[in-house]
Amino acid sequence: MFEMDSASGTPSYGRRWFPQRFAKYCLEGGFMLTFIAFVSIQLFIPPYIGMADNGDFAKVARRLSLVPANTGYGYEYFTADYIFLRTSHWESDFRTSEQWPATIAFLLSGVKTEGDVFNIRWLGAIHALILILVFGLVLLITRVTGVWVSVGVRFAVLWIFSDVLYVSYLNSFYSDTTAVLGLLGSVTLAALIIVRGPQTVWVLGFMLFAVLLITSKAQHALWGVLPALFLFFTVRRNGRVATRVLRAGGAVVLLAAMVVVLWITPTHYKGEARFNLIFRKILKSSLMPAQDLLELGLPATDVRFIGFTAYAPDSPAADEKWFAEFCHRTSYKKVAAFYAHHPIRAFDIMKRDLETWARYIRFDFGNFRRQDAVRPGQRAETFALWSDFRIWLFFLWPAHIVAWYSILTVGAIVVLATRPSMIAVQFAWLTIALIGAAGTEYIISSLADSEETFRHLFLFHAITDVTVCTALVGLLTGTVKQSIEILSKRVLRHSSVSLNVFV
User: Strand 2-4 and strand 11-13: pairing?
Assistant: First the structure.
């Protein structure tokens, strides 16, 4: 970085120091500006994109007294404008962290008067700022790596997470948006803590993003255990009492958030998902549906409801008395017991979803407004190279995802066994946590509901994309190569010893 002055013997900055530092900052600025441009072009410049509403937007929007300016579009078109009507206010009993950025966007928009228009790009801007912040943290992490490593990792993150798959969600009220932002932020800050140490500001940021993920919806609340465990182990790495107390308290907060979300999730939401699961997935392929119903705690006469959804007008779930009895008689505990007694059935369901629904990474929800779309349900095709590649892989060989996670698991175990460096070991544990989270997410999406399985797998695909980045770090830094070399030497040494004993 600097050279010694031959005359005075004092350090002086060398000729190469400033150009190198300048080039480094220019490279970082170039990546940041490119990422901002890719996201902004999609979100803010007409014809800007978003996600069509499947009916879930009202749970967030109507808490702010917002109703869509255009109704009846369904899955076909993205609605950008919402009218402020106090008479439309509705306090949904479904709680989600998506309400936080939505409320901030609403307040910043200046909408106050009856009939004012709220454009969803205000919300898109809040979501985009969070995503851009996460990308900035990636730039910060990769400062400590070599040039080619930093360029490779930054390019991969830029390519993957500026894809329309993720950006289209930013202009929406879906709870999946805060879920994926919470995922990306917490994983990035976990990596930053591993590389730069458990500084208080990084730990607080990690907690905030983890809470954002955990409280997005009940499906993701179970994740509270993983970030809590991470905080527990960071506590052990720091001897300061105040810091240890802060991080131990953070772990407790995350576990408490998990419990609260699971506790306050309305019974009827769980019941509706369970109804769809039983009558649309479990029984639909059953050879003995009456017997399966009895095992699930329901009367055999309910076979007449096979194929119904909880949302259909003629569904028995519309009868409050019948539905209350249904929720009382069956539970996810009984569903889990059913799967335990019929593991092949559970495996077949997951296999069928992998072959049928996992390929719809970008599903047929319209991305364009009615005035911008060429046809109903038109999806955005610009900035879609990564998601198109992922979709192509699923159509070509659905089981590639099983192979990917198998290879990733073996690689992480090899790194843990060979321990090339402490940072490598910690990244291996982080990768194993991601593998566990992906498996949990897939199992819940497949075995706990039957409607819109393709959409429920969104976070599973996001975790997969994160593991692509962590695997790339292991390859470019030489960690994988070093671990294989260490393992090979151990195997050869062991073989040599065994041969000498035999001789």
Answer: antiparallel
Q: State the pTM of this model.
A: 0.92
Structural domain includes residue 227: no
Element (H, E) at 12: strand 11-13
Spatial distance between the Cα atoms of 217 and 481, rounded to a whole number of angstroms: 40
**Helix H or strand E encompassing 492:** helix 479-502
Residue 296 sits at φ, ψ, to 5 deg, of -85, 0
- Binned at pLDDT 50, 70 and 90, residue 70 comes out as confident
For the segment 270-291, what is each residue's pLDDT rounded down to a tens digit? 899 999 999 999 998 899 999 9
> In this predicted model, what pLDDT tens digit does every residue of 479-488 receive, in sequence order?
999 999 998 8
pLDDT of 228 over the 80 cut: yes
Same domain for 419 and 337: no
- What domain count does the chain have? 2
Q: Both 407 and 307 in a single domain?
A: no
Is residue 3 situated within a structural domain?
Answer: no
DSSP string, 135-176: HHHHHHHGGGS-HHHHHHHHHHHHHHHTSHHHHHHHSS--HH
Range of the structural domain that residue 278 is part of: 267-341
Q: How far apart are the C-alpha atoms of 209 and 227, rounded to whole Å?
A: 10
**Radius of gyration (C-alpha) of the chain in whole angstroms:** 26
